[in-house]
């Protein structure tokens, strides 16, 4: 069968059949060239300019390699590669940064019952796979339905599902190596070939499941540690956190304060053809250009976007582990970003802005003062994908769970997750000494404000 080779910086030459290339060339996939994999991480890691398109090709390649390692038949191999090529087409500008806004402003009452628990970008992906004219023409209605079901519900062979969405899936295998390479770090590096050689299909309750051989435990340990370290050192980097939150706040202010109709049209999801048609017109560059226009001076959204463009970032003025707060405040703080707590969050940010204005002897706008919380899962919990654990095949016996079979991981307390509270604000200092003086003075004040108001936070599931 005729193939076309692509030169990929991570996997060297990767091959695609002519039918796959025709799918890759569709505008709905080419759009991903304009959406960066790591949003604005390039402001701290200058090389991190790779896109969802680069990643998509890599995921499809890895899915094929996994299929080969597991001995799947050609039809199954083709199917999982098609699913891999289409798995990210529902992403909005700046990839995961758009997810919060989509979920916050969606009209979920209009969703079908089986969609109400899905993330909105996943709903968009499923719709596009099933309904985008050129995709359906290329793959056929039956294949499109099967791909959409596999990505959303896992209907069908559990092994195929695990290849595209599981604890060792092709998505993770690619992004760890790709993000490490482009960011110029080694935190996410692992032996992908040894990991794939460790994969096997074994029956469990008469159903074939993807597992690893017992001699592959060390390869998986390396993989999971790579995921943990890349999360802590790259995805949760201070500047990455600040830029993500600035974009999210710009979107929220643009919709709720500026009444920006174009922004509202982009992020207020409705399951209607016009929404999808408009959604596919957007990428990172268009977002920055349209909502950062200098002619819209005075718009709060524009102010934040222009700061991002000029790298005049908000400063982190407070940072503390959640465990340092009183017991009754810990769990509540992790719910602060849920829409149900918006009024409480506004109150806290307003009080923080007043304290900062006094400390810095300058006006600090509460709308641009951001209280943010986040969690880094324990390295043991990171070995799972949702509720799915990595299984270790044990011939003649029931398979074991990786985090029990691994001597390294079985010794780790699963409950030791890292949770943090941070505050970002539009303040400035001239040098490290001035920064230290301000932060030493303001930290206990901000902690007291956050602690006092935490009792008013409703316990919810964080978006």
- What is the CA-atom radius of gyration, in angstroms? 23 Å
Question: Which CATH top level class of the largest domain fits?
Answer: Mainly Alpha
Please work out how many helical segments DSSP would assign. 22
Main structural class: mainly alpha
CATH topology of the largest domain: Hypothetical protein af1432
Helix content: 40-55%
Distance between the termini: 46 Å
Major sheet: order of its strands?
Answer: 5-9-6
How many individual domains? 2
Biggest sheet descriptor: 3 strands, antiparallel
**Known CATH architecture of the largest domain:** Orthogonal Bundle
Please state roughly what percent of the residues sit in beta strands, choosing from under 5%, 5-15%, 15-25%, 25-35%, 35-45% or over 45%: 5-15%
Q: What is the number of beta strands?
A: 9
CATH level-4 homologous superfamily of the largest domain: Hypothetical protein af1432
- The shape, in one word, is globular
Q: On the 0-100 scale, what is the average pLDDT?
A: 90
Entry keywords:
2 domains, 463 residues, Hypothetical protein af1432, mainly alpha, 22 helices, 3-stranded antiparallel sheet, globular
